[in-house]
Write a structure and sequence with these properties.
heterodimer, A: 487 residues, alpha/beta, Aspartate Aminotransferase, domain 2, Aspartate Aminotransferase, domain 1, 3 domains, seven-stranded mixed β-sheet, four-stranded antiparallel β-sheet, 15 helices, 36% helix, globular, B: 447 residues, 2 domains, 15 strands
């Protein structure tokens, strides 16, 4: 593909337009006649002046510089980059959903409220929770909501607990959300398998512990075998247990957080429930709770009356309050609802079984070529280490990621979890076929062979992308965060 | 099975390669006592045609802005959305990618975010904008936390005109760091700045002001900035960027942080989400900002390229010391806004503002002529205004639904003292005929 490095501003030409807006049809259209001058913009905003074809061609070309699930296998661990059904896109764009204002009377938005009510009930059933709020906009906001509910619960019982425990293998959002909720974060050691170190947990669990927050399966892709023991230990000390639901795709219909003793869990609808990742969102991060936390759910709560009408309940005196202006990322909720209704119970269980099968297949095919983060079998993702390649030829996880781009694949997550050296976290998801997995494994095996025979081809990668390796240091030292016209 | 690619034959082959007899063997680590011993209790799977019928049925129960004429605002607006936006953001390369962790394979997303940051900075009159927060309300909450961390102070003063739904979100985020929130009184539609001046002190981290405010009225940002800066507090301005084609940008009036709801920039209303949280700041605050930032750099061969930068602020590196917990944001909505701003362009955004304001003023005049109906406030307003009605607004809104007019937002649920108030928004899409029909219907409803 020929180089295309323009910014939209560089296509601008004074007087060129792409918009089509009506002529004024009201008597007074001059702003200066309507508003005091001090409120009006004195210098026009320098937005581009381009034609519609300029725009369409520019953004089409930009899109072609991206890898996405629709174009490439995208094994980004912990992100569940499964196929995003096109039907769900059509449904979210129905005018009855996409063109609906959030502040209409409930009577004028019954279909939307019913969809939310029912989706919340499905998610509660899937996670074994008693109630679900759909309001959090993403996983991190779900975490914040969950930890704030735990805080409100303790306070309502007259207990001021000060700390939350998280494993050192956790996602960065866990400690960050916990800190915003006002807690001191204590990081626990994990065992080499990524499993909770029960002795370390026991040492830190005390009357000051508000909660223990863990990911299940853990970030090494392993199911925590002693999970019910762990939740019982926490409850014995009056602590609540939070499940980071990023890895829920592994356990649908197999086991449920609520049944394992978790008090709270969030869902990433953009992971498990196929809503598209959008280049970094929007997602949706509903949060589910057990009955004892129900009074603290964010407001408003979607309710169903005995006469089968739906409404928003604002009278929740113990609620933690609101997380975003309206009711949740509704467009994402429509997509997730469509997905659950497409799959049904057997379909969702099959999702997890095939996600687990695919991850184990990749791990098996690669285990003699790379070190494993932990021995298998794994759940929905596997963690490899480039330790061996680094020792042999100085080839790092980053180098392998870049070489994969040249071989036609997006890269796994790298350097996460932090407890595995040179980590490569691979999550194939259930939507990929054996043929795709074989092609990916062949590429990984080729890279392992190149480490010994021709490491330079890895170090120099990528060479097929629109740009080669980028200077991150320059970007951070001399931040250039916006375009300015050449003087 | 739908959306699962492997055939039963392939599954058997793969199990053989792995060396186990069944998928069940792979799940052996899950203790049997921890298993769900029954199928999930969910409705049976639906085939595509049935699901379409079902969802069309649910959609049909809603009074959408195609079936009716929309005069609702209060943070979500029926601005026109140019056709190319949906076509372009629907390209799988954009909407099925994720956070650009591998910049070489994500230049499309990165370059468009850099364009977005540039346009938002230009519109708001600020130095830098981030790649987005969830919505206007959570952007404001993040700004309040940022002001707390920059100043080390723990009081935030909110102008009375700040959207009460936003104030509620700030309250939620204020719980952890124990920020103390105070709200100023409202004057005649605009904030009582004399009262605000008495409320701020050396303990104030930020003064928050919204313009146009929740009631549609314009605020004096210059004076608000002087009040905040006199006590070394930050001024946080809440704005609607779609208005900034014609309204003076908060950055030019002294704001230190500008946040707002970018939904009007080409994002569907979609029952209130996903929206677009706009966040911009002065240069000296950049290392305290929440969220992602894209920066320009060069590659090995000296070619221009873009990367996520200043990541040491972020949760995946700094964990509990990060400036925010945000990870996934609303990148695709930011892309919609970018394409919107390019499409309406320098002239069109001005035109959108002029038309919205002119039609709003026509509507206010027309509706205000109905006996018993009057403008509630005297302060200048922009595209939205507050009416007092002679009959309960909630009932009037129900009545007008029959005429397929989505009349506005009754304010009583937000403020008990405004029990007769209806908030009406008018965008460039509304025609004189629609406004006249609204006036006729309202006249009948309150007669």
């Amino acid at each position: 593909m020929p180089q295309y490095d323009k910014l939209i501003f560089e296509l601008s030409s004074p007087g060129r337009i792409a918009y089509s807006l009506p002529e004024p049809d009201v008597p007074v259209a001059d702003l200066h006649a309507l508003l005091p001058a001090k409120y009006l913009r004195s210098k026009p905003a320098e937005l581009p002046e381009v034609s519609e074809v300029d725009i369409v061609r520019h953004y089409t070309r930009l899109s072609q510089l991206n890898y996405g699930v629709d174009t490439h296998f995208y094994p980004l661990g912990s992100c569940t980059m499964k196929y995003n059904p096109k039907l769900n896109e059509d449904m979210a764009r129905l005018p009855g959903f996409a063109r609906l204002h959030p502040l209409l009377p409930a009577r004028a938005s019954q279909g939307a409220l019913r969809l939310m009510h029912d989706l919340a009930a499905y998610l509660a059933e899937i996670a074994g929770m008693d109630a679900v709020s759909l309001q959090p906009a993403a996983g991190a906001q779900g975490e914040l909501a969950g930890v704030l509910m735990i805080r409100a619960y303790h306070l309502a019982r007259g207990e001021t607990r000060t700390k939350v425990l998280v494993p050192d293998s956790s996602h960065g959002t866990n400690p960050a959300s916990t800190a915003i909720a006002g807690y001191h974060v204590v990081q626990l050691k994990s065992e080499r398998s990524g499993e909770v170190d029960l002795l370390d947990l026991e040492r830190h669990l005390d009357a000051e512990t508000a909660a223990f927050m863990i990911t299940l399966p853990n970030t090494l892709g392993l199911f925590e075998t002693r999970i019910t023991e762990i939740t019982a230990m926490c409850h014995a000390k009056g602590a609540q247990v939070y499940m980071d639901g990023a890895n829920l795709n592994a356990i649908l219909g197999i086991t449920r957080p609520g049944d394992l003793g978790f008090d709270v869990c969030h869902f990433n609808l953009h992971k498990t429930f196929t809503t598209p990742h959008g280049g970094g969102g929007p997602g949706a991060g509903p949060v589910g709770v057990k009955a004892h936390l129900q009074p603290f759910l964010p407001t408003p709560v979607v309710t169903k009356s005995p006469d089968n009408t739906y409404g928003l309940d604002w009278k929740r005196p113990q609620s933690i309050g609101k997380l975003q202006a309206f009711w949740g990322n509704f467009g994402m909720l429509v997509r997730a609802y469509a997905y659950v209704r497409t799959m049904g119970a057997a379909g969702l269980r099959s999702v997890s079984e095939n996600a687990v099968l695919n991850a184990n297949y990749v791990m098996k095919r690669l285990e003699s070529h790379y070190d494993l983060g932990a021995p298998g079998p794994c759940m929905h993702e596997c963690v490899l280490s480039a330790r061996r390649q680094k020792q042999q030829a100085g080839i790092t996880a980053t180098d392998i990621a870049k070489r994969l781009l040249d071989l036609g694949f997006y890269a796994p997550s790298t350097y996460f979890p932090l407890i595995v050296e040179e980590a490569l976290m691979i999550e194939p998801t259930e939507t990929e076929s054996k043929e795709t997995l074989d092609a990916f494994c062949d590429a990984m095996i080729q890279i392992a062979a190149e480490t010994e025979k021709s490491p330079d081809v890895i170090r120099e990668a990528p060479v097929t992308t629109s740009v080669r390796r980028l200077d991150q240091t320059l970007a951070a030292r001399q931040p250039d965060l916006r375009w300015r016209p050449a003087r | 099975m739908r959306y699962i690619s492997n055939t039963p034959a392939q599954q058997r082959e793969m199990l053989a390669t792995i060396g186990v007899a069944s998928i069940e063997d792979l799940l052996a680590r899950i203790p049997s006592g921890a298993r769900l011993g029954r199928p999930l209790d969910l409705p049976p799977a639906m085939a595509e045609p049935d699901l379409i019928r079902h969802l069309r049925g649910l959609a049909a129960e809603n009074a959408d802005a195609d079936g009716g004429v929309c005069f609702l605002g209060a943070g979500s607006y029926d601005h026109a959305i140019p056709s190319p936006i949906n076509h372009l953001v629907s390209r799988g390369e954009f909407f099925t990618a994720y956070t650009p962790y591998q910049p070489e394979a994500s230049q499309g997303t990165l370059r468009s975010i850099y364009e977005y940051q540039t346009m938002i900075a230009e519109l708001t009159g600020m130095d830098v904008a981030n790649a987005s927060i969830y919505d206007g309300a959570s952007s404001l909450a993040e700004a309040a936390l940022m002001a707390h961390s920059v100043t080390g102070r723990d009081q935030v003063v909110l102008a009375a005109g700040v959207n009460p739904l936003y104030r509620a979100v700030v309250e939620t985020y204020a719980e952890g760091p124990a920020l103390r929130l105070r709200t100023t009184p409202l004057g005649d539609g605009a904030t009582d700045l004399a009262a605000a001046k008495k409320m701020v002190s050396g303990k104030t981290a930020a003064l928050v002001i919204q313009s146009p405010n929740f009631y549609g009225c314009l605020e004096d940002l210059t004076e608000a900035a002087e009040i905040a800066h006199a006590v070394d507090a930050l001024l946080i301005a809440v704005t609607d960027p779609v208005n900034l084609g014609v309204l003076e940008p908060p950055g030019a009036l002294g704001a230190d942080i500008v946040v707002g709801e970018g939904q009007g920039l080409g994002v569907p209303m979609s029952f209130g989400g996903p929206n677009l949280g706009v966040f911009a700041a002065k240069q000296d605050l950049v290392r305290r900002m929440p969220g992602r930032l894209v920066g320009a750099t060069v590659d090995l061969e000296g070619r221009r390229g873009y990367v996520l930068t200043l990541q040491t602020r972020e949760q995946h590196i700094r964990r509990e010391k990060a400036t925010s917990n945000i990870c996934t944001n609303v990148a695709l909505c930011a892309l919609m806004a970018t394409i919107y701003m390019a499409t309406v362009g320098k002239q069109g955004l001005r035109r959108v503002g002029e038309l919205s304001a002119a039609k709003a003023h026509y509507a206010a005049e027309r509706l205000g002529r109905i006996p018993g109906v009057r403008l509630r406030f005297g302060a200048p307003y922009f595209k939205e205004f507050t009416l007092d009605l002679p009959k309960p607004p909630a009932r009037v809104v129900q009545r007008l639904l029959r005429d397929r007019i989505l009349a506005g937002v009754p304010l009583r649920p937000f403020d008990r003292t405004l029990k007769n108030a209806l908030l009406v928004a008018v965008t460039e899409k509304r025609t004189r005929d629609e406004i006249d029909a609204f006036a006729d219907a309202l006249g009948r409803a309150v007669a």
